[in-house]
């Protein structure tokens, strides 16, 4: 999906767009640990400058006679928590989610739903890693059948995105190992 960025000529929004562009330039398929740390740092910086950029956008819209609306896509709100989660940084994901609510880029309901998802995924990864540690090479479908007490959607998210689990193709499924 292509993201359209409309730039403003104010210091805070220019800083936000510069950081956002650098953040979006990180290629996850080929990223090394340095790239990943850079992404996290840029995301944190984006979030820090965003309230000031929003104030500029509100003033610009008011001066132009427009009603202010947040951009539909805000990567430091929409993707940063999930990236943290994929590396097992659940406390950081919760912190970012709370910060997004605090600065007004998430509703209370959105933040609450996100926090529940983070907590459910953290429980799912804990259970999955525990089971995999004692059963290295367990097939993905077998793990799913053993962890029926874990929220299915959360377990699916963990098995798809977690960097804490190594997947090796085994027939039509994957053999799972702890990283």
Explain the overall architecture:
There is one protein chain. A hairpin with a 2-residue loop joins strand 2 (165-170) and strand 3. The protein has a domain at 11-134. The chain has a three-stranded antiparallel beta sheet. Helix 1 packs antiparallel against helix 2 (33-63) and helix 4 (80-86) packs antiparallel against helix 5 (90-102). It has 179 residues and is mainly α. Helices cover 63% and strands 8% of the residues.
For the structure shown, list the relevant keywords.
179 residues; mainly alpha; three-stranded antiparallel beta sheet; 63% helix; elongated; disordered N terminus
Largest sheet, spatial ordering of strands: 1-3-2
Number of strand elements: 3
Strand content: 5-15%
Which segments are poorly predicted (pLDDT under 50) over 5 or more consecutive residues? 1-9
Rounded mean pLDDT is 91
Helicity, as a percent range: 55-70%
Q: Could you give the distance between the termini?
A: 31 Å
The DSSP helix count reads 8
Largest sheet data? 3 strands, antiparallel
Class per helix and strand makeup? mainly alpha
Assembly state: single chain
Summarize the helix and strand pattern as letters: HHHHHHEHHEE
3D shape? elongated
Rg over CA atoms, rounded to whole Å, is 19 Å
